[in-house]
Description:
The complex is a heterodimer.
Chain A: E1 9-13, E2 18-23, E3 31-38, E4 45-50, E5 55-56, E6 61-64, E7 70-75, E8 84-92, E9 104-109
Parallel strand pairs in A: 1-9
Antiparallel strand pairs in A: 2-7, 3-4, 3-8, 5-6, 6-7, 8-9
Chain B: E1 4-7, E2 10-13, E3 19-25, E4 31-37, E5 43-51, E6 54-57, E7 64-66, E8 76-78, E9 87-94, E10 104-105, E11 109-113
Parallel strand pairs in B: 2-11
Antiparallel strand pairs in B: 1-3, 3-8, 4-5, 4-9, 5-6, 7-8, 9-10, 9-11
Amino acid sequence: DAKTTQPTSMDCAEGRAANLPCNHSTISGNEYVYWYRQIHSQGPQYIIHGLKNNETNEMASLIITEDRKSSTLILPHATLRDTAVYYCIVRVASRGKLIFGQGTELSVKP
Amino acid sequence: DGGITQSPKYLFRKEGQNVTLSCEQNLNHDAMYWYRQDPGQGLRLIYYSQIVNDFQKGDIAEGYSVSREKKESFPLTVTSAQKNPTAFYLCASSGPRTIGATQYFGPGTRLTVL
């Protein structure tokens, strides 16, 4: 599975959009981009995933660049409860294992 | 209310004792997984099972054992052979049958060996 690079930490003001970047320059054609988040001492929570096209669900939007070498997770109106570590994972659909890196620690501040 | 349950949330054991962590899901998922997380680290795969009565070792299976007698249940036993058992243990499941389907996680069990 391709390696991902994320900033270690980010801050966001409550009510503003949080844009979390992820670099996956070695991604191959059959690898999906997944995003999970983990609030302290809880299990990871699935957010969204995509292959080529931009995706949106009730939690977030995923923007994947045309060359697929990077992506951005967007939380449109961040709340204090969105404070968590956000993981970007690149994965072949047929593989069972999820490889979690260090992630981005997002702090949403009042 | 569908989901994955792990019990207990906190578990304490003496060194040298085996301990079994519970994982149950009512999502009708075929595949189930066990991961381990150490402080400040990502998750590492211990074992996974794609179907009842079948399971495979992950990256760090030594000192652990599992069983999959029912679709809903995938218990993990941490044996005395596991050198550093204190960790946060996470169970996940995915379905339908495709192993690559999105994984959903339980709340975790924090094991402390004294």
